[in-house]
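Work Package 4 report. The design task specified in the project plan requires that, given a folded chain encoded as structure tokens, an amino acid be chosen for each position. We show below one input record used in the internal validation round.
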């Protein structure tokens, strides 16, 4: 019985570590892989947007409420990925600005 418990515990810990890794992987890609800083600011209240890339500054501004709301983790990750995609896809346009 103890062996079954230890195997389950090991499996559960691996699952938990995978979940944690997925939560932070997009932040890691943006900050370490692309050298872009993620800055939380109150965007939704002031400008009614959740995030935007700062052209020429290597910063993605993200709404602090979205970043801190555990219920919206998926939306937060998607929003970061979307902003990174804008930076990559529109790099030639951003260079001209």
């Amino acid at each position: 019985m103890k062996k079954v418990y230890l195997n389950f515990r090991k499996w559960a810990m691996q699952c938990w570590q995978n979940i944690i890794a997925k939560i932070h992987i997009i932040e890691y890609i943006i900050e370490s892989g692309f050298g872009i800083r993620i800055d939380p600011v109150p965007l939704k209240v002031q400008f009614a947007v959740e995030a935007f890339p700062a052209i020429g500054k290597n910063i993605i501004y993200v709404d602090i409420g979205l970043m801190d709301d555990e219920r919206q983790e998926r939306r937060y990750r998607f929003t970061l990925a979307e902003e990174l995609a804008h930076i990559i896809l529109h790099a030639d346009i951003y260079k001209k600005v």
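The chain has one domain: 2-96. Validation will be extended to a larger panel in the next phase.
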